[in-house]
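Section 5.1 Outputs to date
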Amino acid sequence: GQRIRKLSQVDGGVFFIQDGIPEIVHTKDYTPHDGITTAFQCRPRLVHKGHIIDRLKHQIAKRTFIAITRDKKIIVGVTENSMAYAKDLATILALDTDAGGLGCEYALNLDGGSSSQLFIDYKGYTKEISGSVSVPNAITVSSKKPSPGYSCADQ
């Protein structure tokens, strides 16, 4: 990992992993430091402390998101063959699992619309959701651990 661009001061959020624990915070509350191995910024935040963010734009679009459940599991998703309002997606993410939701404590909308896409190849399960445009970057997940002593603060 290396810093690609300085943090923008937009009203959004930063997803990061510090000492193996995922977090999402408001952009103004993020400070890079030792122990952070992954970090990226996007907007808007959808869920904060289990509550839906009030100021979500009322616009229907294909959605891509990253979320953290109450037990610190990471969920990455894309709406497939459908579009959604950000508030509706946030509602599904924030609802408890016994109420039909995903039980997320925090969630961040990623760049959606025509760039929303997903590819999974995991333990024999393969799934591809194609976008309608090329994208210059991606979030990748693998089992490879970072080098000992690596930190995003080093960049």
